[in-house]
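Hi R.,

Here's the chain you asked about this morning:
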Amino acid sequence: MIFKRFILIVSFILSVSFVYAADEPSVVSSVDEDEPPAAAATGSSDAPSDQTISDFSLAGYGEKGKKTWDLAGKTADIFVDTVKLSDVVGNLYGKEEDIRLTADEGDFNKVSGKVHLEDNVVITTSSGTRMFTKSLDWDRKNQQVTTDDVVCIKRDTMVATAKGAWGNPTLKSVSLKKNVRLDIMLVAKGAPASDKEKIVITCDGPLEIDYAQNVAKFRDNVRVDREDSQIYSDTLDLYFLTGDTAKADSPAAKEVTGAAGMMGMGSKIDKIVCRGHVKVIRGENVSNSEEAVYSAVDNKLVLTGQPKLLIYSTKDFSNAPAGNKGPF
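And the predicted structure, written out as tokens:
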């Protein structure tokens, strides 16, 4: 019996290695190319066509034998092309950031190397970003994750929700498909936590987040809500400062305490650009224009493109939706 189990385990390992030998190069030519993965399993059943494995694991290695990814499950049902896993844990090991994916269940395609995760799916990056959803497809080779279910992405004081998403597993480049909402908690530097101010940005979608450009792009039917004002527009681009341009003593940015920008971007807002049928409402005062640019340098909102301003204040312009009194 022991010898028979040993033969089954060896056969499974060889079958997995054979599949990957046809899919990936056997000799590593760059850091991004993996060698054939190693498989380890214990407790296989005696059934030759349908095996149940305990403590299943796969791993891929790159240059100099460095592990680049791994996938493990508490149990695994082995089929011809697919391995069905329970209590799934996957890891990607990058140069700058590591990513962990967990789920209650998952399917691993032995031919393509793709993984489908199901129920209580969570992506966690080493920089602190977390994404929650019901199901997720993980394409390891193309470095992409996708889902059509509702997603929630959290990063310190920012929370984004939407229906459907796709992007890089690091979440530094991600597109939220539709019904997008972003909640931002702002705290002025040195102010107590009780003075937090909330900004809510919604749009029909998509919301595209580009870490390289440090910008979040909201599309279609955009609305910005603050305690005493609203902005409506067709599109909105939210830019962040990073590195040397976002020094603590710089007056050219508004602090977003605790939030390293939009899911990993800079911690300070540089500017907000609204375009297309822009309407700004502050109290009873309303302005319309084709473009509105909020600059954090001077804390002003500048309207361009035949702006029209309707002011109901008869005493002064303190409630005007533009000027140096505030962003809206």
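Confidence is low (pLDDT under 50) at residues 2-49, 251-267, 319-327.

Let me know if you need anything else.
M.
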